[in-house]
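Format notes (please read before filing issues)

Several people have asked whether sequences and structure tokens are stored in separate files. They are not. Every record keeps both together, in the order shown below: the sequence lines, then the token lines. Line labels are part of the format and must not be stripped during preprocessing.
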Amino acid sequence: MWGHKKDCSLPHKSNLDLKKIPDFLQNNSNMLDVITIGSATRDVFLVSDKFIALKSPKFETGVGECLNLGAKIELDDLVLTTGGGATNAAITFASLGFSTATICPVGDDAPGRDIKETLKIAGVQTKFMKIHDSGKTGYSTILTMKTGERTVLVHRGVSATFSSKDIPWKKLKAKWIYLTSLGGNITLAKEIILHAQKNKIKIAWNPGSKELEIGLAVFQKILPFVDVFNLNKEEAELLTRTKKIKNMLKLLQREEKITVITDGTKGAYAQIDGMIIHVGTRPVKVISQTGAGDAFGSGLVASLLHGENIQTALAIGVLNAESVIQSYGAKNGILTKWPSKQQIQKIPKK
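Then the structure lines:
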């Protein structure tokens, strides 16, 4: 998402005041600030200059990450850390001073205990975490090239069986819920979103590809209840079956709700009440792209919680992601204090 490039122009309309916080985002409750919901994983980064990108129509994306078959590959680095959308986002919120809890399933194993300890150290409440006696914590192996590009091998573990039974519904009270991938469980996603709507909780949703594959018709029935809907361009293309961001935003538009689409080095676009707002990125040295999406989305919502306007929230999301991609690990580099006005102003805006 990073490195600045000139981007195509999009229509800007409406008289929305960028300095004003939309009324529907304002919440003066004294309850927990945010609860994140989604996956938790043990992440292992394997870094080598022997991993190479190879273009071929045999790969779904047109490019594969390859290595020599049968060879013993020397690694330049190995980094052991934790990941998963719910835990990554929770660290951002807690690091920026918000009272935060997370709901994510882990196994009763060493990776699960490490994840819980990492969250506790950061100040995230773990009382809602579901510990499964049988089954393993999710595990991701990230094959990372020197360019920062990577391929992720995922074993979802107990996250694959995340269900309504894992949610403490009566205790699910906060100003915001930040919902991440549920491994394709769209029924549970609907249940969480409707619970939030019924209980006047703001909700931000960053679904995974398994949910998006279900199709736009299903999503259009849910999205009117989602305050902030956040995707990257590839995810938005999968959902909308269109390639132009302008058309994606039009299909995902809801009254008084925010849709955000990130587009790599071209920056991020937000639409609210027919107005499209864009911020760019700056050229930075990319060590690993893992965690950029979680950092951007949680930085954006944290900014809205803080009372920032949409354009500033986008810029802070970019700053958080920018910081994360300059080191290995989705949690390393997460902002621990609010960016200064000068830092925010350095993010290109249109």
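For reference, the curators noted about this record: The first strand starts at residue 34 and ends at 37. Residues 265 and 305 are 26 Å apart (CA to CA).
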